[in-house]
Amino acid sequence: MNRRTFFANLLAFYGTSILPESWFVPLDDPVEPFELRVAPNIVKLFVRTEKNDLFERISDLRGNLLECGIEMPKLRVRDFSYLSDNQCQILIHGRVVCTRSVTSGDSIIAHLEVVLHS
Predict the structure, then answer these.
(1) How confident is the model at residue 2 (pLDDT cuts 50, 70, 90)?
(2) Does the reported pTM lie above 0.85?
(3) Element spanning 6, H or E
């Protein structure tokens, strides 16, 4: 039984009165193939400045990997308040594959490279 069938059966049996409204979200939301979650205190690393352009460096990483025959999927970057300061997580298809403490954009790029090469 998939999620859609489960919720349809639940609604048919109980009706909407006992279910919280937060349950009524689209069920077709795809899981991102590649996601980076960062602690709120390091979101500033992703702000584009003359000295810091982490998105450009991620784009360069994508190009370098493509030269090696590895296609890097689209990367979704999100901040998560439950992460400790300076923490980041890398997820592949919704599963956490790496949780690390980072201090700079360089360490984020290094962790992405390790995950993608493994």
Answers:
(1) low
(2) no
(3) helix 3-14
